Amino acid sequence: MKNRIKVLRAERNMTQEELAIEVQVSRQTINAIEKEKFDPSLPLAFKISRLFGLAIEDIFHYD
Amino acid sequence: METKSNEWEATQRENVMHLAYWTIAWVLTMAVATFGPKFLWDQNSSISILAILVNTIIGAVMILMNRKYANGLDEMQRKVTMEAMAIALGVGVVSGLSYSMLDIANVIPFNAEIGHMVMLISITYMIAFIVGSIRYK
Questions:
Q1: pTM for the complete prediction?
Q2: Could you give the dihedral angle defined by the CA atoms of residues B63, B68, B70 and B76, in that order, rounded to the nearest 10 degrees?
Q3: Do A29 and B4 touch (CB under 8 A)?
Q4: How many CB pairs under 8 A join A and B?
Q5: ipTM reported for the complex, 2 dp
Q6: pLDDT per residue over A7-30, tens digit each?
Q7: Which of A58, B4, B131, B132 has the greatest number of CB atoms lying within 10 Å of its CB?
Q8: CA atoms within 13 A on the CB side of B64
Q9: Closest CA to A36 of A11, A59, A54, A10
């Protein structure tokens, strides 16, 4: 699954650590999601999309 | 933001420490229950039963702490942990039975000890956990 988290994070000048804190996961998990090595669960995807103020489909794309 | 981080990390740290304390307590009470009859209470059955009972109860608490630790992980950490546990369990069951059959068939010149299986399961878990963690880096 592809995602735009890295771009959205950069636009907001946010670090992986800060995003991880906001959605209550480890920095390693955010890194794995950004590198598309790990697909987040639906609740985590909702948390991330709410944080960026976007719809899930605007961030995550099924490849 | 910082407070949130501290809360989540503090909970994880606390879970790890609780698991460590109870694991150490379990190992120590197992040592007492194993060597106590010979070196501490001269084969007194009542004390041996009590020591084994205490060790079993502490073991049960350790299992609950392990579950709490696993539930406190985030979803990727939990996936890595569960995969490592599944591999360790599979290796333990399959090789344990093979090892037992080798002993029954007198193919190996020594008795199949449960301690060997515990070591194999532990090493398998550690390797599987490290490999799983590297895979998601």
A1: 0.83
A2: 180
A3: no
A4: 40
A5: 0.89
A6: 999 999 999 999 999 999 999 999
A7: B132
A8: 7
A9: A59
